[in-house]
Write a structure and sequence with these properties.
- The protein is α/β, with parallel strands linked by helices and 305 residues long.
- The protein folds into three domains: 2-66, OB fold (Dihydrolipoamide Acetyltransferase, E2P), CATH 2.40.50.140; 89-232, Rossmann fold; 246-301, Probable gtpase engc, domain 3 (Ribonucleotide Reductase Protein R1, domain 1, Orthogonal Bundle), CATH 1.10.40.50.
- It has eight helices and 13 strands.
- Strand 1 (2-9) and strand 2 (12-17) form a beta hairpin.
- The structure holds guanosine-5'-diphosphate, magnesium ion and zinc ion (ZN).
- Residues 187-188, 204, 234 line the site of magnesium ion.
Length: 305
């Protein structure tokens, strides 16, 4: 029988079978996919084959399908290990806010770079519009102009506004969507607004929880009655860039990617090289200053200059 992974906590997985039943399940044998060393061989969103256990309510996972995509982070305990956050997503919604808390554009840029690496389309959802003043509205408009021009649709919402929730519902219909964002921006509130019977705790994130136990960082998939699935990722504060070479970073900047062939040097890092098409575009205002500043910062952290 086929099934999809909805939740994984250590060695047990909650699956939804192709017949629509939820079943607890364990893994049989070892799987290693894509030659990657992972802390979790099976992740939320994975499509698996299962066999029911004789006389029990549980199942064993006997196989796993190839992934359409997946997103990983570095294991906090071992730099060589990857933790697969989730697999087989159609899109990601990055929940942001211009207030309480303000989402830094550096955080947004790292997220969209990661999504580009794994070929996951991103929508930026700015929540808490009900508490924005003119200043925050201007900040939102400025970000929207930049991000929409490079291919990331933006929308302004409030989790308290039913019409806004309905707009998001349309966006999610019949798709598997990763919900991400820093804690406090309103992910749980939005998910509860979309599907009230889930009653996910809001304001639940406490720092000592995140440091101590890893149970709070497991992703969970939820069905929407209106069609589609949400993958909630509590506890993911920062998506550090992993498995990325300094020469590749500009490939994951859509506004730079199209210029790379026009640089004089084919190994141009777009930092101080002469006749660099990226620097020229920056000077002409075709690339946003803050986007380029984050690019410089990321390369510096990788030791590129
Ligand atoms: N004013 C306002 N507050 C919100 C909105 N969405 C969420 N909040 C509040 O922000 C806090 C954090 O929300 P929560 O959903 O737990 O954020 P999460 O950490 O991203 O899951 C809670 O106190 C919510 O009531 C919104 O659209 N407007
Ligand atoms: Mg939450
Ligand atoms: Zn260049």
């Amino acid at each position: 029988m086929k099934a999809v992974v909805y939740k994984s906590t250590g060695s047990w997985y909650t699956l939804k079978t192709s017949e629509g039943d939820f079943v607890e399940s364990r893994m049989k044998g070892k799987f290693r996919l894509d030659g990657m060393r992972t802390t979790n061989p099976i992740a939320v969103g994975d499509h698996v084959q299962i066999e029911m256990e004789e006389g029990l309510q549980t199942a064993v996972i006997t196989g796993i399908d190839d992934r359409k995509n997946y997103i990983v982070r570095q294991s906090p305990r071992n730099v060589h290990l990857r933790h697969i956050i989730s697999a087989n997503m159609d899109q990601a919604l990055l929940i942001c806010s211009c207030k309480s808390p303000r989402t830094p554009t550096g955080f947004i840029d790292r997220f969209v770079i990661t999504a580009e690496m794994y070929h996951i389309p991103v929508h930026l959802v700015f929540n808490k519009r009900d508490i924005y003043k003119d200043k925050q509205m201007r900040q939102y408009e400025a970000m929207r102009e930049v991000y929409e021009s490079i291919g990331y649709p933006c929308r302004l919402v409030s989790a308290h506004e039913p019409e806004d929730i309905e707009g998001i519902r349309e966006l999610l219909k019949d798709k598997v969507t990763l919900f991400s964002g820093q804690s406090g921006v309103g992910k749980s509130s939005l998910i509860n607004g979309l599907q009230s019977n889930l009653e996910i705790k809001t304001k639940e994130v406490s720092s000592y929880n995140e440091k101590g136990l890893h149970t709070t960082t497991f992703a969970t998939m939820y069905d929407l009655d209106s069609g589609g699935q949400i993958i909630d990722t509590p506890g993911i504060k920062e998506l550090a860039l992993v498995d990325l070479d300094s020469f590749e970073v500009s490939h994951y900047y859509p506004e730079m990617r199209k210029l790379i062939g026009s640089c004089k040097f084919n190994n141009c890092l777009h930092l101080n090289e002469p006749k660099c098409a990226v620097k020229e575009a920056l000077e002409e205002g075709q690339i946003a200053d803050f986007r380029y500043q984050h690019y410089q910062k990321i390369l510096m952290e990788m030791g590129a200059h």
